[in-house]
From TrEMBL:
Keywords: Membrane, Transmembrane, Transmembrane helix
Organism: Shewanella subflava
SUPFAM superfamilies attached to this UniProt entry: EAL domain-like (SSF141868), Nucleotide cyclase (SSF55073)
Entry protein name: RNase E specificity factor CsrD
Record-annotated membrane-spanning stretches: 12-35
Coiled-coil ranges (or none): none
SMART domains: EAL (SM00052), GGDEF (SM00267)
Length: 640
């Protein structure tokens, strides 16, 4: 851009200098021609006068010169005149005309060589005798005015044309910097128009290619992780997601696993009516998502041809009983004409798990519960209950609200951080996590209190407290960059938006050291919400960076990453876990990185636990990572 501006300025200056030089040469030639013609006219008059004197002298001598010569000399503006014969004056004339400031022009020559007759003239400068009339002055004024108008119009025209070149350069710079949307919108006055139209066409083709790349990514993942009949997760998807809920092969929170299975013996003529069975399974699958839509991070997959699996984190035993009963009753409403025994073809097994349980053990318990339900020879469900219920689950919503409000007022929250390291082990930023202390000074995990804070509508207050602590207590101590997670309720809260806007305006240097992170599944569900896009745009304009995490957790397109201009993309731990042994996950990561190659988004891996995972990720092109292998979560601020 700077080079282009210099070029356009030079072109404009060259045009003006060239035009001024042409005008100057033209005016100089005109002036010289005028002076030359004026003196030539005076010389012609002198020659005529000399001819008249020679003729008179040859006929009458010097007699009667007084009768006509003085009048002629006066008419010719002669200051002094002498007629000489052998250097002897025969006739003299002296005028009373002022010589003027420019002096006189002297003419002295022999007019008749035979008699040595010569004359000597002193005439006033011909330019002194010329005066411009109003008509001539008007013509000059009109001429100069016309020149000024044409010069101004020409300058405006060339400036307009060069502005088009500037716009082309600006669009080119936007494309180089990755601002494709900005370059697409700047299409109005680019010159030359052919080049401008070519750039617009290439941008449209690039957008189509990017969308096609996103569709390809989604297609790859769909064929890898989705069941082709029901279009929900397959067995591999289920195992990845369940593993992601654990740490060190132990579950990090409580929840329930449901296994819903159809009796193969109850379905007659399966091979002869495949389409009817597909339609039946599809109807069953369509019933379940609305029943679990109120819960977050639900895993729904098809483990086998006749078995569906549902994992609902943060679900208490009482809620699990109600949900199991609703699931079995709603599924029994779907009829299939080939079912031989309508009283014994659908069974549901459920297993409650708590923090510290192993995923493989949970699946075994759920399968045991399913076998127990099948042994009853009825359409029923069975819950495998070990009798170990997390004490924190016993709190109702009212008690949770009272506890969280008390914790907010008394600032019982404290912060932890986990480093995010680049491939050369340098610190990229730190991600902030939070905990809360109860009345017995026990730590309550975020996986436990965040769902309850969402239910109680207190997440905006909690996350505002966390952001305040990061801005005013943590950041002044060092120069690191910090990443803070924001929930959907917070991003769509007008009160929080007004507060964060005024705070970042007041502390503008700190804004550039903040990264606001949003979960992919929440963003996909609510990306049409007008307040969400408005808040993200405002945070970006304030200088903060944007990040999306849990990417790859759901099978969705990734074109939104470039549409909303995210700076960081964090791969979900379900994609990262044992990635060195899972070529399908490696294929997805390669495809995602290739699709984001020309964007500013930086791909980061979450939950790296072993060296082999990190080495594989670096080979695949992942630029940074976080997890137990790279750095544990550490306390950075006590009660906030």
């Amino acid at each position: 851009m700077k080079l282009t501006k210099i070029l356009t300025k030079k072109l404009t200056s060259f045009w003006l200098v060239s035009l001024a030089a042409v005008a100057f040469v033209f005016l100089l030639c005109a002036l010289m021609s005028f002076v030359q013609l004026t003196y030539r006219f005076q010389q012609n008059k002198v020659a005529e006068l000399e001819s008249m004197i020679v003729t008179h002298y040859q006929q009458q001598g010097i007699a009667q010169l007084d009768t006509w010569l003085p009048a002629v000399l006066k008419a010719y503006h002669v200051v002094q005149f002498q007629l000489l014969l052998d250097q002897q004056a025969l006739y003299s004339y002296q005028s009373d005309v002022d010589r003027g400031e420019s002096g006189v022009t002297l003419y002295q020559r022999i007019i008749e060589p035979q008699t040595a007759l010569s004359v000597r003239f002193e005439l006033t400068s011909p330019l002194n005798n010329y005066q411009f009339s109003w008509y001539e002055l008007l013509i000059l004024f009109i001429g100069f005015g016309a020149i000024s108008v044409f010069v101004r119009y020409g300058l405006k025209w060339i400036t307009h044309e060069l502005d088009g070149v500037e716009l082309l350069a600006l669009r080119s710079k936007m494309i180089i910097e990755g601002d494709i949307q900005g370059a697409k919108l700047s299409t109005a006055k680019g010159r030359p128009r052919l080049i401008n139209r070519a750039i617009s066409k290439l941008i449209n083709d690039l957008e189509d290619a990017q969308q096609e790349r996103g569709r390809l990514d989604q297609f790859i993942r769909a064929n890898t992780f989705l069941d082709p009949v029901t279009e929900i997760g397959n067995r591999l998807f289920f195992e990845n997601r369940l593993t992601a809920l654990s740490h060190d092969n132990k579950m990090v929170a409580y929840g329930v696993v449901f296994l819903l299975e159809f009796d193969d013996d109850a379905l007659m003529n399966v091979q002869t009516d495949i389409e009817a069975n597909k339609a039946f399974i599809t109807q069953i699958v369509a019933i379940i998502p609305p029943l679990v839509s109120e819960y977050t991070d639900v895993i729904f997959a098809r483990r086998s041809r006749l078995q569906l699996a549902i994992v609902v984190p943060q679900l208490s035993l009482a809620e699990a009983d109600l949900l199991a009963d609703r699931l079995i009753r709603r599924c029994l409403l779907v009829k299939h004409h080939q079912i031989a025994n309508h009283d014994n073809y659908l069974h549901l097994g459920a297993a409650f798990y708590k923090a510290g349980d192993q995923p493989s053990q949970i699946i075994e318990e759920a399968e045991m519960a399913l076998r127990a339900a099948q042994l009853q020879r009825l359409n029923t469900w069975f819950m495998y209950d070990k009798g170990a219920v997390d004490k924190e689950m016993a709190k109702g919503s009212v008690r949770w609200r009272s506890f969280l409000e008390y914790a907010l007022v008394n600032k019982r929250f404290f912060l932890l951080q986990q480093p995010v390291l680049e491939s050369d082990n340098s610190l990229l930023h730190c991600e902030i996590f939070s905990r809360v202390r109860d009345n017995q000074n026990n730590e309550i995990r975020a996986t436990l209190f965040i769902p309850m804070a969402n239910k109680c509508g207190l997440m905006p207050q909690v996350e505002r407290l966390i952001v305040e602590q990061v801005l005013f207590n943590v950041m002044p101590k060092n120069d690191a960059i910090y990443c803070v997670n924001l929930s959907m309720d917070t991003l769509t809260s007008r009160a929080f938006t007004r507060w964060i806007q005024s705070t970042l305006l007041e502390h503008r240097p700190l804004a550039t050291r903040l990264i606001f992170e949003v979960s992919e599944d929440l963003f996909i569900k609510h990306q049409q919400h007008p307040q969400l896009a408005k808040t993200l745009t405002m945070l970006s304009k304030m200088g903060a960076k944007l990040s999306v995490d849990h990417v790859g957790k759901q099978v969705v397109g990734t074109h939104y990453i470039q549409t909303y201009d995210f700076d960081f993309v964090k791969l979900d731990r379900s994609i990262i876990r044992q990635v060195h042994e899972r070529p399908e996950n490696q294929l997805y990561i390669r495809s995602l990185i290739g699709g984001l190659l020309r964007s500013k988004a930086q791909v980061i891996a979450e939950g790296v636990e072993i060296l082999e995972e990190w080495q594989t990720l670096k080979i695949l092109g992942v630029s940074a990572a976080q997890g137990p292998f790279l750095g544990d979560i550490a306390l950075i601020a006590n009660d906030v």
